[in-house]
């Protein structure tokens, strides 16, 4: 796994590093306007390499979810550039960007976001709606892998939190994405299930996938190759390897 | 996994909302289809009633017309026969003849050439028959010392362009005399007696029975002899004729025709019993025709009234449906729109994750409009079936569903097609706003809302 280090203060990259980075975030900014202006991203730069497991820690409102959604091509930044696998998704049309997302990116959220009326197997298969490469066999394999076979026909409401998150994780991985984005995936889980999820993400990274996990939970850093700290829309520092709680 | 699978599973999961929306659309469609059925039934019924009534009137009128025609022919025939029996009833006189003289004294003084009768006979006249030239003068029979009307006639002059007809009156041969009943009585004359008149000898050839007219005091002799006795060679007082059996203002027609041939003449009608009878019969025929005309008018009036009554009924139904149908559609559309909006908000998380999974705008629209299509289709089919049934119950068309369907066969396809089609359109339009809202939902906002 790569262990490159980068902060807002040090955004210069060697040409080699740029070539190998799966995700290249350069000086992203995002300002939420409204009653109060919030600078959710403030000149953020970051590189994620294939097979890398990166955790971004920060308090609520620090901008970590905004960064995750921006990298997830769901939230257009006000400025800066994003490259994933050599492409700038925000230069694509909406539909092309959606297809790019379907092909390259998987999501896991704290709230699971399972489709309530679909069974476990159908939820895992749901990406087939947008990605023609998803097969039922893959879905069944992942369902077995995440220990959900006996819950195959159950609806989301009939599952425990741990099962729901495992189902969501299986759904995120069924397209075999290059990049897996996880937003507080263990926030609603007990320790046992949290560990299962984190191990699964680590396994994914070990198989060559890139994981970006945002959390405020220090324990998640144990599985990370890199842990970045975020505050007020800026990446303040990077902790290489397993972070320690403070 | 595809969009239809997703739609189907969602329908099953949230069947309450779907059923409610479907029922709303079914009610609106049923109202529409029932209204269509009733309105079209109205038109069919109107056509049927009018056709039946028209046929009935036509048959009745045709029968009456036939009767009148038959009666008319019979009357004309009877009139013709009567006229033939009752003799000449037209007098063609010189234009200068004072008619008061004729009416007061029964005599004529003005004369015209005898050649007029040939002129008339050789013309193409059609309004008169049986031309009889005559001289007539009231004289004192010197040998008998009584006043008589001397009438000279030579017999009928045939009209050249017609077939010969049997004469009404036989000519009096030269040297013979026909006498009226009063003269016969006064002078005790009988057939075969020889008498002298103004020095000329005549044999009585015929004695007329009493007629109660000037004929009773008339003696008839040969025209030429009469002209000689009266000093009127080649002149005549009048041409007697029998009018045709013309309808309408006969005399005007006759006068017009004769004036075209003999301009210096006048035509008068001798008011006879025959004329009275003919007029009475003509009047009877006219009355019958008038009755027929009235019946036709009455039939027309009844048909018009029926049409108006049906038009009123149809207008009432149209007015009612013009309010009920749009109202039910509006209510259904509002409910479906509300349900669709609620559904959209209920499915925000799902929309967010579908977006995250890479769903395009078309696919998101497909999810919502596909559901609207199913909603419209099922509601439309259900509503169409219900509408047909209600329409059948409320319309007066067909006693059984079978006869109703048979009567309605031509329009059934259109109704069964337009009901679901309109329902699908309604559901699509009502869900459109919700679909657009779903499309505009920002996945980032949805996903962020629940995680940050």
Automatic annotation (TrEMBL), chain A:
The keyword Transport applies. SMART domains: AAA. Residues 23-246 form the ABC transporter domain. It holds the Pfam family ABC_tran. InterPro entries: AAA+_ATPase, ABC_transporter-like_ATP-bd, ABC_transpr_LolD-like, MacB-like_ATP-bd, P-loop_NTPase. GO terms for molecular function: ATP binding; ATP hydrolysis activity; transmembrane transporter activity. CDD domains: ABC_MJ0796_LolCDE_FtsE. Keywords: ATP-binding, Hydrolase, Lipoprotein, Nucleotide-binding, Transport. It comes from the Bacteria. The gene is lolD_4. SUPFAM superfamilies: P-loop containing nucleoside triphosphate hydrolases (SSF52540). Its EC number is 3.6.3.-. This is Lipoprotein-releasing system ATP-binding protein LolD. GO terms for cellular component: plasma membrane.
UniProtKB/TrEMBL annotation, chain B:
One of its GO terms (molecular function) is transmembrane transporter activity. It is a multi-pass membrane protein. InterPro entries: ABC3_permease_C, Macrolide_Exporter_MacB. Residues 329-441 form the ABC3 transporter permease C-terminal domain. The chain crosses the membrane at residues 320-341, 372-394, 414-439. GO terms for cellular component: plasma membrane. It is found in: Cell membrane. Keywords: Cell membrane, Coiled coil, Lipoprotein, Membrane, Transmembrane, Transmembrane helix. Residues 280-312 form a coiled coil. Its main location: membrane. It comes from the Bacteria. Belongs to the ABC-4 integral membrane protein family. This is Outer membrane-specific lipoprotein transporter subunit LolE. The lineage of its organism: Bacteria, Pseudomonadati, Planctomycetota, Planctomycetia, Planctomycetales.
């Amino acid at each position: 796994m790569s262990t490159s280090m980068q902060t807002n203060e040090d955004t210069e990259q060697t040409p080699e590093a740029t070539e190998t980075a799966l995700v290249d975030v350069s000086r992203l900014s995002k300002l939420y306007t409204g009653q109060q202006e919030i600078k959710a991203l403030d000149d953020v730069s970051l590189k994620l390499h294939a097979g890398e497991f990166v955790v971004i820690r920060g308090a609520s409102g620090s901008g970590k979810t905004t960064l995750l959604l921006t990298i997830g091509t769901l939230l257009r930044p006000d400025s800066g550039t994003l490259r994933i696998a050599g492409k700038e998704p925000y230069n694509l049309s909406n539909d092309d960007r959606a297809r790019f997302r379907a092909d390259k990116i998987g999501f896991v959220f704290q709230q699971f976001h399972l489709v309530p009326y679909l069974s476990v197997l159908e939820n895992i298969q749901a990406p087939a709606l947008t990605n023609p490469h998803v097969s039922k066999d893959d879905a069944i394999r992942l369902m077995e892998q995440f220990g959900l076979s006996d819950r195959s026909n159950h609806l989301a409401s009939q599952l425990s939190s741990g099962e729901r998150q495992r189902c969501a994780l299986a759904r995120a991985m069924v397209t075999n994405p290059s990049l897996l984005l996880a937003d507080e995936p263990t926030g609603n889980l007990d320790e046992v299930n949290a560990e299962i999820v984190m191990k699964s993400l680590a396994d994914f990274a070990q198989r060559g996938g890139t994981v970006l996990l945002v959390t405020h939970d220090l324990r998640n850093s144990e599985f990370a190759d890199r842990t970045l700290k975020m505050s007020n829309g800026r990446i303040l520092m990077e902790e290489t390897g397993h972070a320690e709680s403070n | 996994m595809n969009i239809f699978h997703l739609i189907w599973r969602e329908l099953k999961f949230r069947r309450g909302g779907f059923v409610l929306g479907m029922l709303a659309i079914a009610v609106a469609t049923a109202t529409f289809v029932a209204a269509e059925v009733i309105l079209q039934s109205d038109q069919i019924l109107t056509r049927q009633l009018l056709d039946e009534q028209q046929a009935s009137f036509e048959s009745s009128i045709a029968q009456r017309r036939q009767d009148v025609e038959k009666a008319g022919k019979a009357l004309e025939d009877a009139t013709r026969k009567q006229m033939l029996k009752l003799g000449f009833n037209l007098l063609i006189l010189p234009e200068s003849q004072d008619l008061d003289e004729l009416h007061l004294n029964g005599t004529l003084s003005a004369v015209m050439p005898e050649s007029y009768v040939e002129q008339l006979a050789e013309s193409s006249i059609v309004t008169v028959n049986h031309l009889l030239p005559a001289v007539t003068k009231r004289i004192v029979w010197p040998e008998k010392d009584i006043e008589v009307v001397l009438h000279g006639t030579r017999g009928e002059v045939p009209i050249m362009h017609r077939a010969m007809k049997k004469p009404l009156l036989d000519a009096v041969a030269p040297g013979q005399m026909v006498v009226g009943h009063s003269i016969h009585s006064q002078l005790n004359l009988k057939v075969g007696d020889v008498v002298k008149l103004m020095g000329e000898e005549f044999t009585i050839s015929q004695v007329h029975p009493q007629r109660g007219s000037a004929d009773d005091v008339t003696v008839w002799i040969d025209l030429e002899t009469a002209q000689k006795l009266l000093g009127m060679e080649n002149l005549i007082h009048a041409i007697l004729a029998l009018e045709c059996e013309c309808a309408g203002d006969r005399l005007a027609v006759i006068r017009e025709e004769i004036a075209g041939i003999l301009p210096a003449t006048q035509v008068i009608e001798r008011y006879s019993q025959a004329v009275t009878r003919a007029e009475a019969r003509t009047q009877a025929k006219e009355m019958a025709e008038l009755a027929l005309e009235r019946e036709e008018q009455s039939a027309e009036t009844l048909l018009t009234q029926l049409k108006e009554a049906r038009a009123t009924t149809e207008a009432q139904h149209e007015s009612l449906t013009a309010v009920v149908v749009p109202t039910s559609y509006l209510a259904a559309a509002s409910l479906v729109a509300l349900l669709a909006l609620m559904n959209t908000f209920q499915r925000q998380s799902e929309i967010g994750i579908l977006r995250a999974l890479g769903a395009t705008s078309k696919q998101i629209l497909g999810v919502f409009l596909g559901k609207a299509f199913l909603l419209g289709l099922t509601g439309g089919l259900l509503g169409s079936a219900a509408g047909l049934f209600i329409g059948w119950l409320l319309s007066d068309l067909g006693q059984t569903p079978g006869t109703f369907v048979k009567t309605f066969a031509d329009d059934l396809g259109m109704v069964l097609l337009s009901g679901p089609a309109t329902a699908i359109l309604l559901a699509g339009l009502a869900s459109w706003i919700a679909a657009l809202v779903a499309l505009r939902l920002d996945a980032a906002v949805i996903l962020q809302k629940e995680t940050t």
